[in-house]
Amino acid sequence: MKSNVINExxxxxxxxxxxxxxxxxxxxxxALIVLWVVIWAFVGASGLMPxxxxxxxxxxxxxxxxxxxxxxxxxxxxxxx
Length: 81
Description:
Layout: H1 2-20, H2 26-43, H3 51-71
Helix pairs in contact: 2-3
C-alpha cells in the first residue's frame, strides 16, 4: 500500500517536470529571438546616449526577455494527449 502511494507520487512529480519543459508558442519564441537581436544591437549604442538611460533601457529589455521566457504561453504537447 505504501509503495503504491510512493510510486504514484513519483509518477506525478515526473509528469510535472515533463510539463515544465514545454516550449513557447511560435509567436512568443519569435518575439524572444527578435528581442535578443534588439538587445545585442542596442549594446552597440552604448556611446550614443547617457549611461543611465542606456542602462535603464537595456535593463528593461533584459527583464522583458526573462518575462517572456518565464511567463509566456506554452505550446501544447500533443504526445501526452
